[in-house]
Amino acid sequence: MQVEVARPILESNDTGAAQLRRRFAAHGLLVLNLLSSPGSGKTTLLERTLTDLRGMLRFGVIEGDCQTENDARRVAATGARAVQINTYGGCHLDSAMVAQACDQLGLEDLDVLVIENVGNLVCPAEFDLGEDAKITILSVTEGDDKPEKYPFIFSQSQVMLLSKIDLLPYVPFDPERASTFARAVNPDLAIFPVAALTGQGMDAWYTWLKERLAAKRQDH
Amino acid sequence: MHELSLVEGILAIVREELAKHGLCRLLRVRVKHGALTAVVPEALETAFEVLTAGTDLAGALLETELVPLSVRCRSCGQEFSPKDEDRFLMPCPACGAELGHTVLTGRELLIDSIEAE
Question: How far apart are the CA of B26 and the nearest CA of chain A, in angstroms?
Fold first, then answer.
């Protein structure tokens, strides 16, 4: 016999994400899902952010990687609370993994939770983790047509951090072109050109973070 | 690229539905995937074969159906399906407005039906 099912394949992930969202709201926590390709400088940018905002905002970090705890160690060195998820080859984090990591991390006494996803511009975009915003990093050592090649992830993001801009004199990357493409798929995208090593442009990103947290607390 | 996770989701739902309807042998699963989802049908079929092999669901078929992209123009309200080459800017055939249209179909990722006995 034929049975009409009409159920979303990712429904268990979506249910888990809705539970996470309620849990995050109960703590008045701002949650960011940090996305990029491998090697864009996600962890370096995060280390800089955590160091610069130390004493102002209390950060928790969930690090997603295929293997090793290297990133959690780097992040913990800044004084932030961090746990590592190893996906052992898996291409994305899902809401069940994040729920488990939250149990381990503990959400008390935090202002911002950053979930550093597995380096990948395709799969993580499909898996809701209960976050308030997806932040996609595009580094200038990649192609400036990335937003055109991977439109879905840029259309789902609220912020694009254009990173490693201190290398612009040495690479054929046109920030104007990248921003135009990214805004074409997502007119509301906030774009912040930054360099984590020199600190250039980071203040605008921090301002966005603080404003979003204030807005979340107001809703709370 | 995450077809294995998708198939795990499919199998969990299929098992629930089989139990709910008192069925034990799965013959066919029909999946609908929108043009905007990052699903590769061949990879989904392979993952399905791999994850059902040696289980009670072995031998069942996975059928995929692509749901085309359709949008409503943000400017004049015209509903249309952008051609493949226009997927990026999506110019409206009626008024020429580009981008920012409302997606009507193309984001689906669901199990449509199963056949079992």
Answer: 10
